[in-house]
Amino acid sequence: MSDIILRTKNLGKHYKNRWAAQEINLEVHRGDVFGFLGPNGAGKSTTIRMILSLITPTTGTVELFGHDLFKKREAALQNVGGIVEKPDFYLYLSAYRNMQIAGSLTLGKTPDDKKINETLGIVGLAERSMDKVKTFSHGMKQRLGIAQALLCDPQLIMLDEPTNGLDPQGMKEVRELITRLTTERGITVFLSSHLLNEVEQVATRMAIINKGKMIVQGKVEDLLKANANKILFNVEPVKRSMAVLKKIKTVSEIIQTDEGIVAKIDGKEIPSVVNELVKAKCRVFSVQPKHSLEEYFLSVTDER
Questions:
Q1: Contact present, 95 and 120 (Cβ < 8 Å)
Q2: What is the pLDDT of residues 28-45, one digit of tens each?
């Protein structure tokens, strides 16, 4: 059995005079939390809609669990669940009744009580199952949407901006749920988002899309290594510190930012560089690495 459960080749969608997504080549491995990153309007939702067969691509192919989506649609999608943008509910009905309705549409029959209660328990809503959805917070609605997507026992779940609009507590709850789905239930998660910090905390692999085109794809840890030698110096006075750093041969790509001075330097050289700054009577308050996902994203999309 192939480790790659989702593969797209040259996938694209053209609307009138523009490409919403173009030449999208994705590979999602079994067990991944796959972060699909890009600014708003980059083509993330369009790509997910094509993968879920909600819209027809202009170009390319989609393969799910070894099945060509356009030749064997039912077989390709039978192990896939998903939420595109914001999930919708009957607000005047209970969470339990919404699950019954969603199950009848997804499975072709109403799921039994045990299945509904078990699934609501997975997302932490078992105690609110009989409450009307209109009383739920935005975060609870997001978790209810994920519960609906889990009714078909998917091996792959596609989540489009699941933390969008949530407060910090809601984000934390969704993030923890995604981690549990992968570690406890073996579900592969495809997570679309523009919130880089959220994805950085849970993703194992990622792809970045910008202006409809894919820029890069790979393991998160491998991609971040490309920025691993960037160091942020919080020092004063800045002008004198800049001059000192520019004279040191092991320091390069020195720039001044709102946070301080960022420079490229091998980690083992940091003590000697700090020593040079101190000798020049510069006050060094902190030295920290700048290999965050945000830094990497900005470097490859030129969004600075």
A1: yes
A2: 999 999 999 888 888 999
Residues in the chain where the model's pLDDT stays below 70: 1-2, 226-228, 291-295, 298-304
| Structure-token pair, residue 268 | 């083992």
Q: State residue 169's pLDDT score.
A: 85
Rounded CA separation 31/142 (Å)? 22
Is the backbone peptide bond immediately before 154 cis, with ω within 30 degrees of 0?
no
- The answer to whether 291 touches 297, Cβ cutoff 8 Å, is no
* HSE, side-chain direction, 13 A CA sphere, residue 224: 17
Helix-, strand-, coil-residue percentages of the chain, each rounded to 5: 40, 30, 30
**Residue 15, CA atoms < 13 Å, CB-side half-sphere:** 6
Amino acid letter at 96? Y
**Alpha-carbon dihedral of residues 101, 106, 110, 111, nearest 10 degrees?**
-110
CA distance 218 to 227: 14
Using CA atoms, how far apart are residues 289 and 230, in angstroms rounded to an integer?
6
What's the pTM value of the predicted model, to 2 decimals?
A: 0.78
> Could you tell me whether strands 4-15 and 18-24 are parallel, antiparallel, or unpaired per DSSP bridges?
antiparallel
Query: What's residue 304's pLDDT?
Result: 43
